[in-house]
Design goal:
Layout (H helix, E strand, L loop, with lengths): L13 H16 L12 E6 L5 H12 L3 E5 L13 H9 L4 E6 L4 H7 L5 E6 L5 H15 L6 E5 L6 H10 L6 E5 L8 H11 L2 E5 L11 E4 L10 H7 L7 H4 L7 E3 L20 H20 L7
Parallel strand pairs: 1-2, 1-3, 3-4, 5-6, 5-8, 6-7, 8-9
Helix pairs in contact: 1-10, 2-10, 5-6, 5-10
Bound molecules: phosphoric acid mono(formamide)ester.
Length: 310
């Protein structure tokens, strides 16, 4: 994987993903062995949109591998605010660092950045399009908790239109045999047609659309809750009308399987009631930690920094 970019989940084969997750598990078990493998390497985090988990987990990952980080957390702190193009920003930063993680509100921005960079570019979210390192996080969590990647009934609930984590996860989990999707959303926030026509249908993936979480929660192995993406609405009234479409609470959890795995990319707003946090099936804070280990494994592979201390 050395020198490659990660723009969307399909950039890695299933085999490469398996190796990445095995490495993440090894790092998780023995992090001290990997504390120097990226010594002398520098990661840039270029965040043109807000973030807590993605930016800080990338930075924590690089620091825990012995490397260093630099970057900005909002575009106003860079020469983008003076009108510099993304291409010029990337050409500049790529001459200072060994690897770049970038979040940008424009769909396709990460692909464009990769075309101007001599060093690996990792897409840390491009508008409503993709968020592949969240998907690595989600897949590592599913692999660890469910001990399998196929034959699962997966509920995607909430803002399936603008939620880029949903688009990346749907694409990634469609590659494993026997997975089925329940797409739970209001009509205004349905999953984009291209996911149906270019992902589910060609892969022969079974899916159904529904309005009510209560009608399907009892069938699910995984429930992936999502926030309604306020920042992508054109009209505040629509956001206010739709924002509380789904609230997972203890009453709904009573209808679910004993081994349901509840995931959420976070941040959450109202869509999971805090009373659910103490339910052993609530996995979203474990998921946060898996995200750091997934990114540690990814950085080592894209930089070719293999081999922890024995
Ligand atoms: N899951 C996720 O992308 O969180 P942040 O927006 O806080 O990075």
């Amino acid at each position: 994987m050395k020198g490659r970019h990660l723009i969307e989940p399909g950039n890695f084969t299933i085999d490469e993903l398996d190796k990445l997750f095995s490495l993440a598990e090894t790092i998780m078990k023995n992090p001290d062995s990997y504390s120097e493998v990226c010594r002398g390497k520098v990661l840039a985090t270029l965040f043109f949109e807000p973030s807590t988990r993605t930016r800080l987990s990338f930075e924590a990952a690089m620091l825990r591998l012995g490397g260093s980080t630099l970057g900005f957390a909002e575009p106003g702190a860079s020469s983008t605010s003076k009108g510099e193009s993304l291409a010029d920003t990337i050409r500049t930063v790529a001459s200072y660092v060994d690897i770049i993680a970038m979040r940008n509100p424009k769909e396709g921005a990460a692909l464009l950045a990769s075309q101007y960079s001599d060093v690996p570019v990792i897409n840390a979210g491009d508008g409503g399009h993709h968020h592949p390192t969240q998907t690595l996080t989600d897949l590592l969590t599913i692999r660890t908790i469910k001990k399998k990647m196929g034959g699962l009934t997966i509920g995607l609930c909430g803002d399936l239109k603008f939620g880029r984590t949903v688009h990346s996860l749907a694409k990634a989990m469609s590659r494993y045999p026997g997975n089925r999707f329940a797409l739970i959303s209001p009509p205004e926030l349905e999953i984009p047609d291209y996911i149906i026509s270019r992902v589910f249908k060609p892969a022969g993936v079974s899916f159904s659309k529904m309005l009510r979480l209560e009608d399907v929660i009892g069938d699910l192995d995984i429930l992936y809750m999502t926030r309604v993406q306020k920042e992508r609405f054109f009209n505040e009234q629509d956001y206010i009308r739709l924002k509380d479409s789904y609230i997972l609470d203890t009453e709904k959890m009573r209808l679910a399987k004993k081994d349901l795995c509840v995931l959420h990319p976070l941040p959450r707003v109202n869509e999971i009631s805090p009373e659910v946090d103490s339910d052993p099936r609530a996995t979203y804070f474990q998921q946060v930690k898996f995200g750091m280990y997934a990114r540690m494994a990814l950085i080592t592979q894209l930089l070719g920094c293999d081999g922890g201390k024995k």
